[in-house]
Amino acid sequence: MSNAISLKGLAKTYGNGKVALHGIDLDVPRGSLFGLLGPNGAGKSTLINILAGMVNKSAGQATVWGFDIDAHPRNAKASIGIVPQEILFDAFFTPFETLELQAGLFGVPRAKRRTMELLRAVRLDDKAHVYSRTLSGGMKRRLMVAKAMVHNPPVLILDEPTAGVDIELRQQLWAYVKTLHADGVTVILTTHYLEEAEALCDRIAIVDQGRIVANEATPVLLARAQEKVIRVTLDRPVGSPPLVQGTRRGEVEAATPNIVTYGFDKRETNAGAVLAALVADGHGIVDVTTKEADLEDVFLALTARHGVAQDGVAG
Ligand SMILES: Nc1ncnc2c1ncn2[C@@H]1O[C@H](COP(=O)(O)OP(=O)(O)OP(=O)(O)O)[C@@H](O)[C@H]1O
User: Fold this and answer.
1) Is residue 308 part of a domain?
2) 47 Cα: distance to centroid of ligand 1 (angstroms)
3) What is the mean pLDDT of each run of 10 residues along the chain (315 residues)?
4) Among 21, 56, 93, 175, which residue's CB has the most CB atoms within a 10 Å radius?
């Protein structure tokens, strides 16, 4: 019961024979801010749509907040709020009416509705009574989040919430999501923006071709990226990179032949040893920078397919 979402052998084959999910197992712990990453077509929307009751699974089990989606569909649905990719609401309703209508659909009694509180939370209280069609894109997006929260679900799923949203609005949206999370809401977000998942999520699962290829606490996932890059400015140009044991991919920069870069595995050597080797070889060090591998490197390594170009990575 400690999981917000639990999937066992969840599979989906569409009518046209396309297998979108190959029997996946996935647990999302309660209280987490969970990232679901994957290239286009990986199966993220299929997974979310099954939880939302919009797509029928072909096999397996799914529970939301302990409620099996087959045995207790109403409770499962009531436990989840979903912000879909597309903006969906009637442009001729005001934000206030939109939320009231949604609360009605979820059977929230009038006395328990939090319409103005939600509008304040997404900073749309001053727009409560204007037509929704006059809202900016970012405001509409925030209204979608408020709409997903009318029935106060313990789990909020955001499907690609920041695609096409500018940086300032993105930050406002994340500020609100963090507030919800701090208040105890379990948040699951799908995103192509790896930096976003890295910065926000405490746990990340990577989906690729209908399979979970990683599911780990963010620092553990990042630690999988053992490659580090060191860029050294030498005191004079070199024709080829001096040999340094324990490194690979030594390169001299074409335009500035006194700058050399090396890749190395953190488990095998370190920046100090690289510099010491260069000095021992008679080179003077003028400057040095290093770069850690990031989530993008891990992501690419895990979803690398022979001869197939990746799409949809990093937005
Ligand atoms: N209704 C459908 N009928 C047939 N195939 C579908 C249907 N919906 C999705 N698919 C296919 O299932 C696979 C998974 O799609 P899905 O939309 O779940 O991926 P996704 O990870 O959400 O991708 P994106 O990030 O682009 O939304 C894709 O190959 C897609 O073409």
Assistant:
1) no
2) 10
3) 92 96 96 92 92 94 96 94 82 92 92 92 92 85 90 93 73 86 94 82 93 91 80 94 86 92 87 94 95 75 53 36
4) 21
